[in-house]
């Protein structure tokens, strides 16, 4: 487990610039984008079932993270701010914890005052496979209102990049 975390942290350092730079330079959605897989139902921090398909019609920032991930912790306040600022305009941030059970995730969600659904993929690798390969967290997909994929980011993303990318989608 420790080796995995070290490898993930190292991979973040190596791939963050490349993944974010590609999406930031594009500035628009991939014209060959496929439909996002919205068929998953996951448990939230309160052990309630949440269907991704319930968010169709909104611009979705689907952020994969982990409680032990330092870059994820740094990115969450930006996601909270984006949800507050753009939620009424149709933005929905959705966080998916890649490997934490609800018992571990719930205090983290409360501590970081996450104002968006925080779901767990614990023992549910299907969503990770559908949006991956998930070799590094944070890993973020932006999904259009019509349910098609727009942009994927490997590693942390700045508020400015997110705002530029979602501006035309809202």
Provide a descriptive summary of the structure in words.
The radius of gyration is 15 Å and the shape is globular. Helix content is 40%, strand content 21%. Residues 1-27 have low confidence and may be disordered. With 170 residues, it is of the alpha/beta class. It has a single domain (2-167), classed as Glutaredoxin (3-Layer(aba) Sandwich), CATH 3.40.30.10. Strand 4, helix 3 (102-111) and strand 5 (118-120) form a beta-alpha-beta unit. The protein contains 5 helices and 7 strands; from the N terminus they run H-E-E-E-H-E-H-E-H-E-E-H. Strands 2-1-5-4-3-6-7 form a 7-stranded mixed sheet.
In short:
The chain is an alpha/beta fold and 170 residues long. It has helices spanning 2-26, 70-86, 102-111, 125-131, 159-167; strands spanning 41-44, 49-51, 59-65, 91-97, 118-120, 139-143, 149-154.
